[in-house]
Amino acid sequence: MEHQPAGHGAADGPAPARHLPGHIAAALAGAGGAADSAGRPWAGRSLSGDDASIHNFEDDDGTADAGYLSALAALAAGNGDEAAVVASLATARVFVPILATLAEEGEGASGLHADKQADMALVTLKAPDGRTAMPVFTSAASLAAWHPEARPVAVYAARAALSAVAEGAELLVLDPGSTVTFVVRRPAVWALAQQRDWTPSYADPELARSLGEAAAGFPAVRRVEIHPGGGVASVTADGRQFPGGGSGPELRVLLYLEDGLDAAGVQSLVSGLNDAWARNEVFAERVDSIEVKLQRAAP
């Protein structure tokens, strides 16, 4: 004779109802409601306590940092400079885009391939000159417009710069695809990551002295001047020009040479100077990209 557990035999009738403990039943009844099991409203309560916050950006509305927008507006109006824009980022929140990447693929139903495991990865781009750039966004809206599937992760810009350095990215590109795209070059990225002030190379008196000292070993060089390079400015999507935020070259070195040098002499001179500057620690740290212009010195 086959034995059936009590409550499952046909002759036994329906199984008796099992009652949950009162505190569990109350919790389930309140799940998704406006109040907990004690009747206390959920509204206005913090999971981390009344006086604590879950993270640094708990009340963030996703809009661009006001200080950054103000510095950018001053740059556009001719009342500000690149250094002020980068300085505004020192305390600004930005959004870093994260995308899911397939780590492992498996076979699903009916033999179809399906994602078995996915990782989240930072997004990097290739700049026109081949360097690696990291896109960051000043607002959630600008990130969503650029890539709707990207997950926005809110961080301070200094932390984004540190991540860029760790990823081998030399540029931070703010709001690519938006009306205003601002490029933060390698020296400024390093300064942000280290939470140091940054001075553009073309406005750096210590760099100017260092370049002049290096040129002292070349008698044919009468004078060295530094100026903003042809790549300092950027152009907005609607055609306006900003005197900053370009991808480079950001430094123009103007060499005043003595008269009488032939083409081979000029080429040898410039090559020697480039070698000297490349060994210069100040130059290596503070210059992102350079263009050299030659000028005949006045007699």
User: What's the end-to-end separation, in Å?
Assistant: 122 Å
Strands, total number: 12
Number of helices: 9
Shape-level CATH architecture of the largest domain: 3-Layer(aba) Sandwich
Strand order of the largest sheet: 3-4-6-7
Oligomer state equals: single chain
> What best-fitting shape do the alpha-carbon axes yield?
elongated
Instruction: Please state the average pLDDT score.
Output: 82
Give the % helix.
25-40%
Which structural traits does this protein have?
2 domains, elongated, alpha+beta, Alpha-Beta Plaits, 299 residues, Trna Endonuclease, Chain: A, domain 1, 3-stranded antiparallel beta sheet
Give a concise summary.
This protein is of the alpha+beta class. It has helices at 22-30, 66-77, 82-89, 140-146, 157-166, 186-193, 205-215, 263-278, 281-286; strands spanning 93-107, 113-122, 125-126, 132-136, 151-156, 171-174, 182-184, 221-228, 234-235, 241-242, 251-257, 290-296.
Give the SSE map.
Elements (H helix, E strand, L loop, with lengths): L21 H9 L35 H12 L4 H8 L3 E15 L5 E10 L2 E2 L5 E5 L3 H7 L4 E6 H10 L4 E4 L7 E3 L1 H8 L11 H11 L5 E8 L5 E2 L5 E2 L8 E7 L5 H16 L2 H6 L3 E7 L3
Parallel strand pairs: 4-6, 11-12
Antiparallel strand pairs: 1-2, 1-5, 3-4, 6-7, 8-11, 9-10
Helix pairs in contact: 2-3, 5-6
Describe this protein's structure.
The protein is elongated and about 90 Å long. The protein has 9 helices and 12 strands. 29% of the residues lie in helices and 24% in strands. The model is unreliable at 1-18 and 108-118 (pLDDT under 50). The chain is α+β, with helices and mostly antiparallel strands. The chain has helices at residues 22-30, 66-77, 82-89, 140-146, 157-166, 186-193, 205-215, 263-278, 281-286; strands spanning 93-107, 113-122, 125-126, 132-136, 151-156, 171-174, 182-184, 221-228, 234-235, 241-242, 251-257, 290-296. The protein has 2 domains: 66-102 and 115-193, Uncharacterised protein PF11572, DUF3234 (Trna Endonuclease, Chain: A, domain 1, 3-Layer(aba) Sandwich), CATH 3.40.1350; 201-296, Cation efflux protein, cytoplasmic domain (Alpha-Beta Plaits, 2-Layer Sandwich). Strand 9 and strand 10 form a beta hairpin. The longest helix has 16 residues, at 263-278. The protein starts with 21 loop residues before the first helix and ends with a strand. Helix 2 runs antiparallel to helix 3 and helix 5 (157-166) packs across helix 6 (186-193). The chain has a 4-stranded mixed beta sheet with strand order 3-4-6-7. It has a 3-stranded antiparallel beta sheet with strand order 2-1-5.
